[in-house]
Structures are given as C-alpha cells and as structure tokens.
Amino acid sequence: APAVQDSESGPVTLILDKRGMSGIETLEPFLERAARGEVIIFPDIRFSGVYHLESLAGIIGPDMVRYNIASNFPAYTRPEEQRQYLLWAWERNSVVWGRPLVTMAVSDIQGILNTLQQVSRPKMDSVRVQARGSAHLALAAVFAAILDERISELDIDLCDARYDAYRYWHEAPDELPVLPMILRYGDVPQWLGAISDRNVVVRHLEASTEEINWLRRFFEADANAKGLCIE
Questions:
Q1: Which of 96, 140, 201, 220 is most buried, taking the most CB atoms under 10 A from its CB?
Q2: What is the pLDDT of residues 140-197, one digit of tens each?
Q3: Single pTM value for the model
Q4: For residue 208, how far is the Cα from the chain centroid?
C-alpha cells in the first residue's frame, strides 16, 4: 500500500478502487494534499487492484493447479472461463469456508491502519476512506468504520447495490458478493445507520423514501444531521 507521502501529524486517507492505484486518473490532487501533510494510501485490498479477480483470469499459471483443491482449474483454459470460475469459486468460499469477500476486505483495511500506526505517527483519529467503482469495497468501508472508531469519514459509492435485490456475484461482479444471513440484521441503509456518529457521503444509494427518511432520523438522533450526505 504505497503512500504518496509520510507525515508525523497529517490525517490519513485510504483510496479504495477496484482497479487499485491504476484506477486513479491523475495523482495531482493527491500530491497537493500530501504536500499539505496528509497521508494518502492506495491499497490493493482483497479483491481489488492486482488482486482483482477479473484481472487474474487468464494469468493463473501451472503452479496453481498442482494442488488437488484446484484440480478443476485445467478445465478452464480460456480467460473468460477462468474469470467466471474465480468469481463463482470465491462466492462459494464465502459460505463453505466462512470467508466472505467483504469481511476479508475489512480485515485488510484494519491491517493497513494497524501497520500504519506502528510505523508512523499520523493522525489516526481522523481516518478518511474513499471507495469507488465497487459496491463490495464501499460496504467493506462501512463495516470497517463500524468496527474501528479511527475511521471518522467515509465517501463511498454503493453502485445502487443492496442485498434484497441480490444477484449472483459472478453475474454482477461490481455489486455485492454474498454475505450469509446478512438480511437477518439489515440491508445497506440499516448498516449505514450504525455509523451515524461519523461524516458519511454516500453515492448511488438504492433506498426507498421511507428508508432514507429513517436513515436521516438516525443521524439526527445522534446529533449529527449534517454528517449524512446522499448524492
């Protein structure tokens, strides 16, 4: 996770993009912010950047298929076939192994913050997370903020995805990968309510008028009505 510039006092911003750092059109705005002392990080968390599953399709080498657990890989020789298999396999792993992609991304985000706190001295009480181009990265940012009070601000794009309109992830990889039993506890709007004490900009939120009004009341009840911006 290369930082543009280190700092002993500046705030931290994590830029999450499904293409990783290659998805940033220009570094100029970030360089300007880094020059003011901000710590900018472009991490390739699971599964984005170099770990983006669609990007791995077609480049999996013979070493991968030496193990019995991957013995069916030789049947998928064309890149488009490998892509479909990888997306489907990891969604299945979310249920079989209890390793949902969203929660693995949360672990990566927390690992980055923990490491940064150990090796540097930035302002870890005001971490900002920006997520673009992938609903699963956006939801990972929400869950990371729920678990980690160091994250004070989110700017996320949910790409109009929600779980009560779920489609198989291998059919819609920019939407939400499976998260077993999540609807027992709430959908995307309800999880946003769990961070009503933070500053949240949310883009392309698929929600009814009733849900949006409920969410706004949640932020108002936390004396943070201005902390929610829906675009």
A1: 140
A2: 999 999 999 999 999 999 999 999 988 887 788 778 988 888 999 999 999 999 999 9
A3: 0.85
A4: 23
Question: Distances in Å between the alpha carbon of 135 and those of 29, 87, 115, 177?
Answer: 24, 15, 25, 9
Give strand pairing partners of 41: 3, 14
Residues 6+ apart with CB under 8 A from 227: 196, 197, 198, 199, 200, 219
Structure letter (DSSP) for residue 55: H
* Positive or negative: CA dihedral 17, 21, 24, 25: negative
Q: Which two structure tokens, joined as six digits, stand for 83? A: 């892509």
Residues 6+ apart with CB under 8 A from 91: 101, 168, 169, 170, 177, 178
Q: How many Å apart are CA 220 and CA 173, to the nearest integer?
A: 34
